[in-house]
Design a protein that fits this description.
The protein has 471 residues and is of the alpha/beta class. 54% of the residues lie in helices and 8% in strands. A seven-stranded mixed β-sheet has the order 3-2-1-4-5-6-7, with helices on both faces. It binds 6-phosphogluconic acid.
Amino acid sequence: MSETQYNFGMIGLGTMGCNLVLNMSDKNFTVAGYDKDPAKVDALNNLAGSRPLKAFSDISTFTNSLSTPRVIMLLVPAGPIVDAVIKELRPLLTAEDVIIDCGNSHFIDTQLRIDNLSKEGLHFMGIGVSGGETGARFGPSIMPGGDKAAYQRIAPMLDAISAKVEGVPCTAYMGTGAAGHYVKMVHNGIEYALMQLISEAYHLLKHAGRSNKELHDIFTRWNKGVLRSFLMEITAAIFEQPDESGAEMLIDKIKDTAHQKGTGAWMSQDAMKIPAPIAAIDAAVSQRILSSLKEERVAAAGSISGATAKDMPARFEESALENALHAAFIITYAQGLAMLQKASDSYKYGVNIATVSTIWRGGCIIRAGLLEGITEVFDKDPGLTNLMLDPAQKNTLESLLPAMRSIVQSGIGAAIPLPSFSSCIHYYDSYHSAWLPANLVQAQRDFFGAHTYERTDKPGTFHTNWNETIQ
Ligand code: 6PG
């Protein structure tokens, strides 16, 4: 093959980049790869065999091997490395070339890169790719955003390499600007909350004495019902994984401090800015941070007297826990999608929520049977403000809420922290409250800061000289 014929370029030949290249090549796209690390270049060239793909360790040979206008994908760590790669690429590119960032970049960085590169006639697109290593190799969910014309040039390739659900590709245009990375951030925030909810259920079950074998059986059974999802499936599998010795289970050897790369926290930060209430997601982010305070927790556990979880049995029905998880999953998707709609309106992305839930049905980490019903809801009523308002979802939640309340009560009674479950209930109850005690907050603000308040009996803005005897 001549060195000017490759349809696509990939920079970053780590596991994700390499797998995506092989996936593209399976679908008959010709791909050139580039990586600074010669070992990665050699590894891909060894895997290439007779495939029309080639990896280079010289960046200008790489860019010269691509058909023009070029389409170059990046799978490098988010942050300054993306800018460093762009800086290196810039002098080698010509107008109309497209750079596609497939990493988990912050949407604000993506928007800046779009603006800067557009001044030189270059297109920059932010694309969310979900599904981990296996997804990248055999079909991820892909969330592209940015210039529509540039998107149309890559759409056939994205359709071909993405996961399919009943023949429908798990990829579609998400919207303008940084919409692709924004949608991926929301995906990850939901991912954090679902993982936290499953972990809270595990905590209750473990505390109630369920063995790993029983946990495997419970999650396997739940995964056959309404909770069917990738995260339930891997959870069931985790409980039957022995450690290297074969004598013990690996889960019991893993340190209880959760790490994070930041996408969940970004969602919480932007939720505060938009603003949008996403309590279950905030709680999940916060709980990861709290889990990382291992030394402090161990010290506190030794110093606090009184009842602790191990002294108090948690009394609950397994079926109630399944129902609580079902409700909490719906409420989590409701929070994430409501925030996405609000963000799309304020950033003018033009995101279609039905399209988002359609492409999340396969390939990605939060794929779940529940997304079928959610897609139908937003297909039918694209303007729906909140998933919980859909009549069918509302009925489902009404029937599940007593179980969730009883589960949270069991947790509180047994000193087992269930922050995401509790947040879901508080969100549900607050959202359905015609009255909240925010009048008192307004009165307090006006009292100490003359911040004014509105009244229920007449229009306008008011300030009161409250009891000034208080110093
Ligand atoms: C995906 C995942 C992935 C993410 C990891 C780790 O959709 O494939 O969301 O993009 O990087 O899940 O994320 P944390 O390190 O933040 O947990």
